[in-house]
Design a protein that fits this description.
Blueprint: H1 2-19, E1 22-27, E2 35-41, E3 48-55, E4 59-64, E5 70-75, E6 82-89, E7 94-102, E8 108-113, E9 119-124, E10 129-134, E11 146-149, E12 165-170, E13 176-181, E14 186-192, E15 200-201, E16 207-209, E17 216-221, E18 227-232, E19 237-243, E20 250-257, E21 269-274, E22 280-285, E23 291-297, E24 303-310, E25 316-321, E26 327-332, E27 337-343, E28 350-358, E29 362-368
Antiparallel strand pairs: 1-2, 1-29, 2-3, 4-5, 5-6, 6-7, 8-9, 9-10, 10-11, 12-13, 13-14, 14-15, 14-16, 17-18, 18-19, 19-20, 21-22, 22-23, 23-24, 25-26, 26-27, 27-28
């Protein structure tokens, strides 16, 4: 009887945890925000409950470790940017600061950790560089071991006057690290060697070049196909590529707008994600429209736009889909709200639930999925 009761308790605990994963919220701290906020999100009802918060300076992008024990956050300073490491205790929902290291650049805007938990990579937007920081056994960060600086410029003299690295994202098999350079209209693919002291090898022929003035920002890999989608901030477009997981080479097959054909304003596209079932792709626009676009992904990987709707706020910098794929949460920086949308499982279309999370200057959302 004791054995059965023990397993019943474990099953109930697991069920509760899976239905209420932790949600981490990164913010800009300008006097209103404290730093990083921790919530629990009910994947059945779409409701969120505050758990804790911790002070941090401009934690504009977050990365949760694969085992869920640590969180890494950028400190987006124009001079002397850094990356902070935090330990996370899932039983209490509390974060504890471990240490911080220089990002070896300015305006760090993206951070990611590999699945082996050996490296953290950070994109430095203003200085046009990326840095590789070793992860210590206690989850803290060691000083950067490798810094790669990009050079060049693009067609937009205001935004592409120099190289601007905007994201560092792993391929699904983590054989490669992809770096989007908004300033040069290029997506660089680096070979990743987690067991080497210098983990990235610069490619010789695996650079994808987009149309002039595109401004690539973020990317999304399809969960089931060998395709990758690049979202460009300046042009408001998604470029689709077939991705060779062995060589890292990319071949272009589609370019599509994230706004209606009659839209004349500035898209300012920000974030891109694919639904867990691989049938739908979503992309936000900050500029003058403050919208999110919904695309159907066909069997051949091509996109068909199905919906463009308001984000119910201003400046949607980041969004996330809950682990079960039933809700989509959008962080609207300038209206201090995170809007919760329901996802129609058959069509992928979005509908505002009327539920929101009020947070000052929210700019990054991450779920603890495991």
């Amino acid at each position: 009887m004791r054995w059965n009761l023990t397993w019943l308790f474990i099953l109930i605990s697991f069920s509760c945890f899976s239905q209420e994963p932790y949600l981490f919220i990164g913010t800009y701290t300008n006097g209103k925000s404290k730093g990083i906020y921790v919530y629990k999100f009910n994947t059945k009802t779409g409701s969120a409950t505050s758990v804790s918060s911790i002070e941090a300076k401009n934690p504009s992008y977050l990365s949760v470790s694969n085992d869920g024990k640590f969180l890494y956050a950028t400190d987006e300073e124009q001079q002397g940017g850094s990356v902070g490491a935090y330990a996370f205790e899932p039983t209490t929902g509390q974060l504890a600061f471990l240490n911080a290291q220089s990002s070896q650049g300015s305006c760090p805007c993206y951070v990611s950790e590999d699945k082996t938990a050996k490296w953290v990579f950070v994109a430095n937007y203003c200085s046009g560089s990326l840095a590789a920081l070793p992860v210590n056994t206690d989850g803290s960060l060691a000083p950067a071991m490798q810094v790669i600086r990009q050079f060049g410029k693009g067609a937009d003299t205001a935004r592409q006057e120099a190289a601007h690295v905007h994201s560092t994202i792993f391929s699904p098999n983590e054989r490669f690290l992809l770096e989007a350079n908004l300033g040069t209209d290029q997506e660089h693919v680096y070979i990743f060697h987690p067991n080497e002291k210098i983990p990235l090898i610069e490619p010789f022929d695996s650079v994808a070049t987009l149309q002039p003035g595109s401004g690539p920002r973020h990317i999304a890999f399809h969960p089931n196909k060998s395709d990758v989608y690049i979202l460009s901030e300046l042009s408001g477009t998604v470029d689709a590529f077939h991705f060779n997981s062995t060589s890292g080479k990319m071949s272009h097959f589609q370019r599509i707008r994230t706004t209606p054909e009659n839209f004349k304003g500035f898209a300012g596209s920000a974030d891109i994600h694919i639904h867990p079932d691989g049938k739908f792709l979503y992309a936000t626009n900050r500029g003058t429209s403050n919208t999110i676009a919904v695309f159907e992904i066909r069997n051949d990987g091509r996109l068909i736009i199905k919906q463009v709707i308001s984000v119910e706020g201003k400046h949607p910098r980041n969004f996330v889909i809950d682990p079960g794929g039933h809700f989509l949460l959008i962080a609207n920086r300038d209206t201090d709200n995170i809007v919760i949308f329901s996802i129609d499982q058959a069509s992928g279309l979005l509908k505002a639930t009327g539920k929101e999370i009020s947070i000052p200057n929210p700019v990054c959302l991450k779920f603890l999925e495991n």
